[in-house]
Amino acid sequence: MAPKKSPHPDSVAAAQQRLAAAKTRRDETKTQADCDFWNEVAAAIDGGELLQAQACEAIGYGREYVRRQLLEHKTD
Known about the structure:
The chain has helices at 9-46, 52-59, 63-72. It is an all-alpha fold. It has a domain at 28-76.
């Protein structure tokens, strides 16, 4: 089997830029989804639908982790 030829430097640079932009979009989307999730958890607890322990049970995280995330993502 013949060795693969290296891609043209221009196509490498273009592909690297495209992947970097895709990673940035992914990171932004993940960050927004995380904020939305924790705001929903906070709303359920603050609205009296669930106690914090019940919310923890529903989402599978420990109370201390949930407490820290709620403080970190708090929007006043």
